[in-house]
Design brief:
This protein is mostly helical and 287 residues long. The protein folds into 2 domains: 47 residues, no CATH class; 225 residues, MetI-like (MetI-like fold, Orthogonal Bundle). 70% of the residues lie in helices and 0% in strands.
């Protein structure tokens, strides 16, 4: 059975690695050769044109990179604070109405108000349109799944006797939360933080709904805009015969931008991997 498990894991690992390798190899391929012969795992004609394009357009691409980093860092930090504080409160057995509140949070995992009312609230009342908060606040700061994970971790992995002893010494809830719960919750917080960071880094829906100012484009939104522009010209070439399309990014250039966009996640993930499995396993245990 162990050998079979290893074979299955090897197959899954190959299925994960191969697309990344093809993405990286294609980004170093010559654009004309790739169009004529297709993308190859080991390109016969190597070109750095795509990465030269990134350097030449770094004012726009670098700005989008910076916006994505700020959104990811601020959003992940805010998400961890909100989720951990809410989960800590719900993990208290004597919390009045705690079960009702937790049930309402779980309902949000199955139902939501829809895109139109959400857009109207965030745009007309909170005025998030064309602000960096439009990339941070909607959808991603809080979800029922992460609250459930952290709550269950607090209840099943941290002995209640520790908090009771601190209460007997005169410690208040916020002191216990800061000095006891957070230091002992590194696995689950690292897990939730990684999930939140990946969601923010890969998110383009919020940019699509709330951002029209190109100065606030994230990396994913910038890639989406490039794809839309190239596809539009490709589908309407007969109508735009006089348009200058020489400076539009080719497929290999867009792939190179995608490579640059995923580098931070690939670099950060190994440092969180040891917490990830432990946090998911313990957080999924019902307390």
């Amino acid at each position: 059975m162990q050998a079979l498990a290893h074979i299955v894991l090897i197959i899954f690992s190959i299925c994960v690695i191969v697309p990344f390798w093809l993405l990286i190899a294609a980004s170093f391929s010559d654009s004309g050769y790739a169009v004529a012969n297709g993308y190859q795992f080991f390109p016969e004609k190597i070109s750095f044109e795509a990465y030269e394009y990134i350097l030449n357009q770094w004012m726009q691409i670098g700005r989008a990179y910076g916006v994505t980093i700020v959104v990811t860092v601020v959003g992940t930090a805010g998400s961890l604070i909100i989720v951990s504080m809410l989960a800590y409160g719900l993990s208290q057995k004597n919390l009045p109405g705690g079960k009702t509140v937790f049930l309402l949070i779980l309902i949000t995992m199955l139902f939501n108000g829809g895109i139109v009312p959400q857009y109207m609230i965030y745009n007309n009342y909170f005025h998030l349109k064309n602000t960096i908060w439009g990339l941070i606040i909607p959808n991603l700061l809080l979800n029922g799944f992460t609250v459930m994970l952290v709550k269950n971790y607090f209840q099943s992995s941290i002995p209640p006797e520790l908090s009771e002893a601190m209460e007997m010494d005169g410690a208040g809830p916020f002191f216990i939360y800061r000095k006891l719960m957070l230091p002992l919750s590194k696995p689950i917080l690292a897990t939730v933080g990684l999930m939140s960071a990946v969601s923010y880094w890969n998110d383009w829906n919020n940019g699509l709904y709330y951002i029209t100012d190109s100065k606030l484009y994230s990396m994913q939104q910038l890639l989406n805009e490039m794809n839309n522009n190239v596809n539009f010209l490709a589908n309407n070439s007969s109508l735009l015969a006089g348009a200058d399309i020489g400076h539009l990014p080719t497929a290999t250039m867009r792939l190179a931008i995608a490579v640059v966009a995923i580098i931070p996640i690939l670099l950060v993930y190994p440092f969180f991997q040891k917490f990830f499995a432990k946090g998911i396993t313990m957080g999924a245990v019902k307390g």
